[in-house]
Please model this.
Amino acid sequence: MTNEIEKPQSIEALVTRLTAETVNIKTRAVAIVVSSDVAEKDAIEFASDLKKRLNEIETNRKTFLAPLKKVMDNVNATLKPFTTELEEAEGIIKSKILQWRTEREKLRQEEERKRQEEYEAQQKKQAEEFPLDVKEEAIAPLPLMAQSNTVVSETGAKATGKKVWDFEIEDEAKVPRGYLMLDEKGVRNAIRTGIRTIPGLKIYQKETLSIG
Model:
């Protein structure tokens, strides 16, 4: 690889050149042995050249995508107010439908309870009037009335409900550690401000490499 960066005329030209220049590049990196000051400098030169190529690719990527990004940004900005308004309206309607379904389910359960009580009362009365026909088994409950989760409007629009498991935090202190996530960003920010001791963490220095 050379240090001169050629500006391609098209994505095809860039791909063709990169394909030729990067043949066995990873194999070359694996084969390099850094065991002396001279070898270290050679490796730094190699890494620097790789960095330039990576920057070139990123620059060209942004250049090729810039027109498309501009169009996408314009389209998104133009349509965003409409999608926001419609999504908010959809959320309002869904909330009202779910609220009604909750109320309807409570009414259904109350009706089932009353129906079961009436049935048991009739069975008990019948047992008192005709004791010879009474069986020792407990009175079997009435079968529950089927309730459809899908509602279809006159125009064919339909809404289908389903039960899903969800959660809300009641007492975070009682949540098992296995379900908690360490705030790595917060830890690194604390270390940058000078914090060197955090219970449960080992804070240490390590060397990183910046190629230029």
Q: What stands out?
A: The two ends are 16 Å apart (CA to CA).
